[in-house]
């Protein structure tokens, strides 16, 4: 196994109209209904509802990226994160 690969997550964020983000990331924070949820490699499986706020993720290059979301669902399994959401400015 490649230890560097094991320390990554595959993030996909999908809106009703398009794919918003597909990236290899080091960590993700999503706005849950009761506060923010932090997701790192090795996170146990999770299905949760999202609230309104910012989805924040750190890329493998160390850059912090942010995306405004207004609710949705997040699914975490096998170091893959799938987010279904509406965006604040989804055109």
Keywords for this entry:
single chain, 5-stranded mixed beta barrel, 91 residues, 67% strand, ATP Synthase, domain 1, mainly beta, 1 helix
What's a quick, concise take on this entry?
It is built from one helix and six strands, in the order H-E-E-E-E-E-E. With 91 residues, the chain is mainly beta. A hairpin with a 4-residue loop joins strand 1 and strand 2.
Rg calc: 12 Å
| Sheet of most strands | 5 strands, mixed, barrel
Helicity range: under 10%
Task: Give the integer mean of the pLDDT values.
Answer: 90
The helix/strand class is: mainly beta
Could you characterize what this model shows?
The chain has 91 residues and is mainly beta. It has a single domain, classed as ATP Synthase, domain 1 (Sandwich), CATH 2.60.15.10. It is 4% helix and 67% strand. It contains one helix and six strands; from the N terminus they run αββββββ. It has one helix at residues 3-6; strands at residues 9-14, 19-32, 35-39, 46-59, 64-77, 80-87. It has a five-stranded mixed beta barrel. Strand 5 and strand 6 form a beta hairpin. The radius of gyration is 12 Å and the shape is globular. It starts with a helix and ends with a strand. The relative contact order is 0.27.
Blueprint of the fold:
Blueprint (H helix, E strand, L loop, with lengths): L2 H4 L2 E6 L4 E14 L2 E5 L6 E14 L4 E14 L2 E8 L4
Parallel strand pairs: 1-6
Antiparallel strand pairs: 1-2, 2-3, 2-4, 4-5, 5-6
